[in-house]
C-alpha cells in the first residue's frame, strides 16, 4: 500500500526564480579550490592537513546533520514551508558539498603517502582502505542518486507549473539518501579517530 | 509511475558505471604507493565505459527526450566534474603516478567526469514536458 507522507503533498511554488547554482558562492569555491591546488603542489603538511581536516569535518558534520536532523524535519514540514526551505537550502548544498568533498579527497591520498600510512607494514593501512570503501559507497549514493534528485527538485520548482508528484518523489529520494550517507559518516568518524590514535 | 515503466534504465546503468569506476579507484588507491596490479582496474574501466555508452544509447532511443534540457543541465555539471576530476588527476600526477597506472587512472577519471553529468542531466531531462 502506498504510504501517504507529507513528502508526497504538492509544494507551493515560490514567486521568484530559484538559483540552482548561487553565483555569489563561486568566488569562495574558487579560492578554496585554489588553496587545494597550492596544498598539493607545495606538498606542505599544514595546507594539506588543513584542507583534509577542515573539508572532512565539514563533509561529515553536514552529512550527519542533514541526514539525521534536517532530513526528518523537511519530511515533517508543511508543503509550503518545505518548498520555501528547499528553495533556499538546496542551492547552497549544490556548491558546498562538491567543494568540501574535493578538498577532503584530493588531499587525503597525498597525506597518506606522506605519512606512509598506506605502506604494507603500517597499522593504519587496513583502516584507510576501509575508509576508501565507505567513501566509495557514499560517493555512488551521493553522485548517482542524491545530487541528481537535488537538481531535479530545483529545476522542477522553476517551471511555471511544477509537477508536485515529481518534486515529492525526488524530495523523498533526497531525504532517504541523505539519511543513509549520514549514517555511513558515523563509520568515517570511527575509522578516522582510530587512525589518529594508533 | 507509467513514465517510470517506459523510461529505460539508463540512470541505473550509468550508476553501475560510476560504481565500477569507484571500485577501480579504491583498488588503485589501496595499492599506493606501490605500483598496482592493473588487470582488475582495466577490466572495470572497460566495463564502466561500456555501461556509460549503453546508457547514452538508451536515452537516444527515447522519443521526445528533452535534449535541450539535457545539454543545458549537463554542460555545467560537466564543467564542475572536469574540475573535480582534474584535481584528483593532479594529486595522482603530483604523487609520481606514471605510465600504465596513470593511463588507467586518467581513463577512470574521464568516465567519472562523464558519468555524473549524465546522471544529473538525464534525471532532470526525463521529467521535462
Outline:
Chain A has 198 residues and is mainly alpha-helical.
Please describe what this structure looks like.
The complex is a heterodimer of chains A (198) and B (129). With 198 residues, chain A is mainly alpha-helical. The N and C termini of chain A lie far apart (50 Å). Chain A has helices at 26-42, 45-76, 79-115, 125-157, 164-196. The model of chain A is unreliable at 1-7 (pLDDT under 50). Chain A is globular and about 60 Å long. In chain A, 39% of the residues are buried. Chain A contains five helices and no strands. Chain B has 129 residues and is mainly alpha-helical. Chain B is built from five helices and no strands. Chain B is elongated. The model of chain B has no long low-confidence stretch (mean pLDDT 90). Chain A binds chain B through residues 21, 33, 36-37, 40-41, 43, 98, 101-102, 105-107, 109-110, 112-113, 118-120, 128-129, 132-133, 136, 139-140, 143-145, 147-149, 151-152, 155-156, 163, 166, and chain B through 11, 14-15, 18-19, 22-23, 25-26, 29-30, 32-34, 69, 73, 76-77, 80, 83-84, 87-88, 90-92, 94-95, 115-116, 119-120, 122-124, 127.
What's the number of helices of chain B? 5
Oligomer: heterodimer
Q: Characterize the overall form of chain A.
A: globular
Please count the helical segments of chain A: 5
Radius of gyration of chain A: 19 Å
Strand segment count of chain A: 0
Give a quick account of the main beta sheet of chain A: strands, pairing sense, barrel closure.
none
- The low-pLDDT segments of chain A are 1-7
Which sequence of SSEs, written as H and E, runs from N to C of chain A? HHHHH
Q: Helical amount among residues of chain A, as a percent range?
A: over 70%
Q: Structural class of the helix and strand makeup of chain B?
A: mainly alpha
Beta-strand level of the residues of chain B, as a percent range? under 5%
Percent of residues of chain A in beta strands?
Answer: under 5%
